[in-house]
Amino acid sequence: MAQRTPLYDRHVALGASMVDFAGYEMPIQYSSMRDEHTAVRQRAGIFDLSHMGEVRIGGAEPVAAVQRLVTNDLDRIGEGHAQYTGMCRDDGGIIDDLIVYRGVDECYIVVNASRRSVDVAWMRAHLRDGATLEDTSDATALIAVQGPLAVSVVAPLVSGVDVAALRPFSFAWGASLAGVGGVVVSRTGYTGEDGVELYVDAAGAPAVWDALMEAGRSVSMLPCGLGARDTLRLEAGLRLYGQDMDETVDPFSAGLGWVVRLDKPGGFAGSDALRHIKETGAPRRFVGLRMGGRAIARHGMPVFSGDAQVGEVTSGTFSFTLGCGIATASLRSDVEADAPLQVEIRGTRADAERVPLPFYKRPSTERSEPAWPT
Amino acid sequence: MADLTGYRFTASHEWVDGGSRVGITDYAQQQLGDVIFLELPEVGRTLSAGERFGVIESVKAASDLYAPVGGRVVEVNDKLVDAPEKVNSDPYGEGWLMRLEDVDETGAELVELDAYDALTAGH
């Protein structure tokens, strides 16, 4: 029996199609993926992401404890900031990709629902003495509001935190909205747009959802399912664990070398293996593909250069923003950058053009203040 | 609701109307979600009932299309190349897929609307 989020009844009432995802009954779409996708790119969309896992690291020196677990360097961010990172096995294989929130006396780690039990077991086994771990996933709901107008929807409802003043990848705790306190507000997301993620006590989630839905009416905000979430994240070049990477893939092969900080003092789980992979060269390269036709290249389809298979598609979809098929692929690292590529789709080879990631970057917004003194 | 007089249906969610046009049902387009690509047969091809005649691809998945009746393909809906979303917005009208002549119902397993509705009810 699949688990339900605190917002399950809301999804059913909105007419969502529900699917089993990582053991949860989740909405895949409410109206149309295209409409939901477009709402986020142009206005705002709201997502229930309560299936995601949250792990609290506390006790003695929580930052030092997390530093030993993850590949990125938490000393590159300060308190009140979030960081994308990897967690690797001793051989460098990726256990999961994570967001770490650096608090004052604690860190919160957001993990993929499908990896939660594996992650928690690994973290417990590799936790420094004196640090504590608490899996708060079941008590925590996560609601995301994403899109260029997302902040204008959320900010007026929130007291205790100035949402509009939060910088990208920063967060604040102690917010209240819709009579629900103790909300963590974060300027993060998985769509390539500006937006906000709200961590809410599970019991308060329906009230927060209802208030946000009501406030979103003025900008025609739509509830968005996992379908639109996938097309949005792929356009933005963001990885999906289980498709774009798994435990057999190292971060360099997944195009995530930028979250591996081998110079981090004291090392971390997998750092010796990752240093060796970096020195000898990663076996794979992670690339973006723009498809010639409308047919969709999907996970696992072979990629050819001439007669030779040189890799596989990791993720593929139709880009509503670009109006063509897009995909990411894992290629052998000896494939030349200008080699012609084709994806075999149902027995037919379709031309694929190698393009830089991301496929879509949001138009840069006017800064409210100069980036530096002028 | 479209006037479906003369339409008959298959368990694989295709329809054929009195003029031997073929398409997919409203239930099918809802299940598929946004249609973005269709592979339709060449005009002149002869199909038998139940034969795979093409592919319909949505953002979610690609699915095979099966001929509800046999016949010769005399027309395919070229407008769907640039506007496949018509299958979603008007599955029984502008979203038609192909038109057949010399129809052969040998081996066809067709049901009337009531029976088709019963088939999909509760899903």
How confident is the prediction overall: mean pLDDT of chain A?
Answer: 95
> What kind of sheet is the major sheet of chain B?
6 strands, antiparallel
Radius of gyration of chain A: 21 Å
How many distinct helices of chain A? 8
Please give a handful of descriptors for the protein shown:
heterodimer, A: 374 residues, Elongation Factor Tu (Ef-tu), domain 3, six-stranded mixed beta sheet, six-stranded antiparallel barrel, globular, disordered C terminus, B: alpha+beta, OB fold (Dihydrolipoamide Acetyltransferase, E2P), six-stranded antiparallel beta sheet, three-stranded antiparallel beta sheet, 9 strands
Quick recap of the structure?
The complex is a heterodimer of chains A (374) and B (123). Chain A has 374 residues and is α+β, with helices and mostly antiparallel strands.
Structure description:
The complex is a heterodimer of chains A (374) and B (123). Chain A is α+β, with helices and mostly antiparallel strands and 374 residues long. Chain A has a domain at 283-355: Elongation Factor Tu (Ef-tu), domain 3 (Beta Barrel), CATH 2.40.30.110. Chain A is built from 8 helices and 19 strands. In chain A, a hairpin with a 2-residue loop joins strand 15 (302-305) and strand 16 (308-319). Chain A starts with 7 loop residues before the first helix and ends in a 19-residue tail after the last strand. With 123 residues, chain B is an alpha+beta fold. Chain B has a single domain (8-120), classed as RNA polymerase II/Efflux pump adaptor protein, barrel-sandwich hybrid domain (OB fold (Dihydrolipoamide Acetyltransferase, E2P), Beta Barrel). Chain B has 4 helices and 9 strands, in the order E-E-E-H-E-E-E-E-E-H-H-E-H. Chain B has helices spanning 26-32, 79-82, 86-89, 113-120, and strands spanning 8-9, 14-16, 21-24, 35-39, 46-47, 52-58, 62-66, 70-76, 98-104. Chain B has a 6-stranded antiparallel sheet. Chain B has a 3-stranded antiparallel sheet with strand order 4-6-7. In chain B, strand 2 and strand 3 (21-24) form a beta hairpin. The chains are: A alpha+beta (374), B alpha+beta (123). Chains A and B meet through loops of A and loops of B.
